[in-house]
Design a protein that fits this description.
By secondary structure, the protein is α+β, with helices and mostly antiparallel strands. It has two domains: 118 residues, 3-Layer(aba) Sandwich (Rossmann fold), CATH 3.40.50; 160 residues, Alpha-Beta Complex (L-2-Hydroxyisocaproate Dehydrogenase, Chain A, domain 2). The protein is 46% helix and 16% strand. β2, α4 and β3 form a beta-alpha-beta unit. The longest helix has 27 residues. The mean pLDDT is 95. The structure holds (2S)-2-hydroxybutanedioic acid. (2S)-2-hydroxybutanedioic acid binds next to α9.
């Protein structure tokens, strides 16, 4: 892959990025992970046709164990780790398990792409720009069981902020097609492009990392996959589960006190159940390894 990296280096140079000082292209862990402040783990084993989910998990446990061990050995203990490669939540858990001296709060996985998808779907439906829609929530797994929740979402319509259900005026769509569209958007992009999402994923990574560094605004929350231990919503501990969070001084905290109705509860629990199963399978592989 080193020759492929040469192309990535050229593209980075061609972006003329204001913060970019130096590029080190390497296939050596001790070079790549040395003194890292931020790690974006993009590479994983994608699911191939006919592949069992179990086999996919096994292959990724090997990759994310090795990356976790490298983080443990070479990175700063303050490193912020964002896992993008799928299955992102469980890969993130494995990386964190393999890097025990790095605080668990420093690990997160990308659900900002789903968050942006949800904002955009609501915005298109209301005929407003995506920037007029805030506080959607993605709960759970970055998979088709995720729950895009708009019960706390606000839409700015002609200068006044309305609850999403009031702005959209179509509960059937919000409780049906909207949810499945967001859940299956990744697959729809793959079907159309014959390739996984690239531009929207890169933008979501930038949004996620910028918010970790610079914080979220006071009244807004964003979604990211984080350690579930101590969460105020009754989700089982020891999962990387997507929650609404706010970030200040490079630390995230759960958004607390949101009312959860029975419709939401069932969907939050269903995606948690999938993550528990993924975690248990992956941890069994990790222990055997
Ligand atoms: C996405 O949501 O676009 C991707 O995670 C899909 C994939 O499987 O690469």
């Amino acid at each position: 892959m080193l020759t492929v990296l040469e192309g990535v280096v050229m593209e980075l140079q061609d972006c003329a990025l204001p913060l970019l000082k130096e590029i080190v292209a390497t296939d050596k862990e001790e070079v790549a992970f040395k003194d890292l402040d931020a790690a974006i783990l993009v590479g994983s084993m994608p699911r191939k046709e006919g592949m069992e989910r179990k086999d996919l998990l096994k292959a990724n446990v090997a990759i994310f164990k090795s990356q976790g061990l490298a983080l443990e050995k070479y990175a700063k203990k303050t490193v912020k780790v964002l896992v993008v490669g799928n299955p992102a939540n469980t890969n993130c858990l494995i990386a964190s398990e393999s890097a025990p001296s790095i605080p668990k709060e420093n690990f997160s996985c990308l659900t900002r792409l789903d968050h942006n998808r949800a904002r955009s779907q609501v915005a298109m439906r209301c005929g407003v720009p995506a920037s007029n829609v805030r506080n959607v929530i993605i709960w759970g797994n970055h998979s088709s069981t995720q729950y895009p929740d708009v019960h706390h979402c606000l839409v700015n319509m002609s200068g006044s902020e309305l609850a999403c259900f009031e702005a959209v005026k179509d509960d059937t769509w919000l409780k049906g097609e909207f949810i499945t569209t967001v859940q299956q958007r990744g697959a729809a992009v793959i079907k159309a492009r014959k390739l996984s999402s690239a531009m929207s994923a890169a933008k979501a990574i930038c949004d996620h990392m910028r918010d970790i560094w610079s914080g979220t605004s006071q009244d807004d929350f964003i979604s990211m996959g984080v350690y579930s231990t101590g969460n105020p919503y009754g989700i089982p501990p020891n999962l990387i589960y997507s929650f609404p969070v706010q970030i200040k001084d490079k630390s995230w905290k759960f958004v607390d006190g949101l009312a959860i109705n029975s419709f939401s509860r069932a969907k939050m629990d269903a995606t948690a159940a999938e993550l528990v199963e993924e975690r248990d399978t992956a941890l069994a592989f990790l222990k055997k390894d």
